[in-house]
Design goal:
By secondary structure, this protein is an alpha/beta fold. Bound molecules: adenosine-5'-diphosphate and magnesium ion (MG).
Length: 676
Amino acid sequence: MASLYGQEIQTLKGVGKRRAELFRKLGAPSVGALLRLYPRAYEDLSHPSPIRTAPLGTPCAIRATVIQAPRETRIRGGMTLYKARADDGESTLELTFFNNRFVMNLLRENETYLFYGKVTANFLKREMASPEFYPAESCPQVLPVYRRTNGLSSRMIGNAVREALRLLPDPIRDPIPPMLRKEHSLPRLDFALKNIHFPGDMESLALARRRLIFEELLVLQLGLLKIGGRSRSRSRFQLQKDFTAEFYSLLPFSPTEAQKRAVREAMADLLGGFPMNRLIQGDVGSGKTAVAAALCHSAIRNGMQAALMAPTEILARQHARTLSALLSPAGIRVGLLTGSLPAAEKKKLRAALACGEIDLLIGTHALISAEVKFLRLGLVVTDEQHRFGVTQRAALAAKGGRPHMLIMSATPIPRTLALMIYGDLDLSVLDELPPGRQKTETYAVTPDYRTRVFSFVKKQIQKGRQSYIICPTIEEGGSDMASVTAYTELLKNKWLPDCRIAMLHGKMKPKEKEAVMDRFSRGETDVLVSTTVVEVGVDVPNATVMLVENAERYGLSQLHQLRGRIGRGTHASACILISAAQNDEALARLKIMCSTSDGFHIAEEDLKLRGPGDFFGNRQHGLPDLRIADMMADMGPLQEAQSVAKEIFDSDPELSLPEHRGLRAEVRQLFENWTD
Ligand code: ADP
Ligand code: MG
């Protein structure tokens, strides 16, 4: 199997240069990678429908005998149409094919086939256009459906996979040792690969899936253990003195007990002899920034540099603004490095950094680019870490001879998952909000309440408050409600004509975004219509309304993040979730949002409702790209894989035993392809 990763996709029969390029785009540059490109769904052909009662408009299977072989009818513009007719003993089905003369040879009169496609009907006849078909006696029961790309149909991918499966060595080297397979009742790799692509039946498919999910999670866990366990050698950046008291005197407020505790715990790490590796989890608004600032301050007062990495430019700028206001009175020099900074200024900044004229560097992931060199980087803070990959953290750590690491997360990750994914980190929890906060009320309403909602927004504006309105997309056909630009126009011209309205979305230039955000934080805009770019961390205490259109489209954790943008000041705030959705799951989600504001609780509920697969699927976790675990429906496999990974890691951390070589190759494969 490992050798198939070295075999280029082009070597497969039927894959030429052009098609090879498409396969590469899909993430399958090699035969081995193609075999790991699992179907995203399956068509179950095992229960064909009678023609008369076949569902209309959705694909279905029909078993019927050809009573009239295909005939050619030419139509305009060089299009050739082929028409045939089939019968299932009860009714007749018209079949049409376009520009496909091969059907003339493939469909024979009096032979029975399985047709798969969408049925349309009028009162005279039932019809299927361009169905797939298979001779009935050799028809597969289950067909794979692959994620397609332009120019590469699911069927073409399937054909290539069939060729690739022929190349599997026999016997195959299975990365999961026989003992382990037996213990966990898992089938062999060759069985799993054959059946994940071309299942003999649904049962074999389930077995194959279980095995591949287990394998992928096991490999993932082993890789994470390896990253986490990477030496506990002594720190070069041990702090000599704790300057927390001095820092607290700079703060315009008194820290909460939870903040003090978190600072104390992290400070003990910094003063100890080993590099800190700590995760601070705190609900939105719990004041994580102040904790980070305290630690940066002490590190800097001990003669080191510190870096703070934020997931978006907006957030980086905001941090730079707050922290430079807070820390410059203490003589601390703060720099801001983002992707959009002009080249000349970047150069200047880098020079200042390299000779130690900047103490605290704040930025986006531009911070980890190779040209950025620190003189003495002792502490790295990453904010809202779920957007940052473990690799990015590792890259930063590698810069300065293993500095202390502090990671801040607003817990969109349920505790159970977090423990598995950040098992190597020490944890501090901010379980207390700063005093004086008003409770945020949350309401879920249907779109017919919109007029009332706007009059509420208007009242808030009259009181001097500001509002966010979140729409799912920028623009595109769709409904007006779903488009930031169209929505903004409607607000300006119709709903809130006298108010100051601005919009913000990811396609805008960084400078524009910055200007819009700046005006909003200065209170010069009443309503900000935005995509979820404001989701993470933005802090405008005067904003009191968060209105979310199409709220059913968001996960609970995401809604919770959005809601966290309000209720940050001393004014009562309201989160309004507008949704027309009527299905049980959507309603259940909205209900949870209305009933609790506890981020931990919400994360757990989200996990229960959607399963961990959804977490692995949404790519915000910063883990390598998983191929199958994102189809997982419950936590079972993850727990199973984790405990096995621990056992293996404890006995053979380098995976050097002969029976672990296959696993080692897979770990390399997964983490090598790892792009964030
Ligand atoms: P988050 O944990 O979501 O990153 P922030 O650090 O952005 O939260 O803090 C949210 C708001 O609360 C900020 O306006 C901050 O100045 C304020 N804040 C933080 N700690 C305290 C405190 N102990 N007392 C009062 N206000 C605080
Ligand atoms: Mg924050």
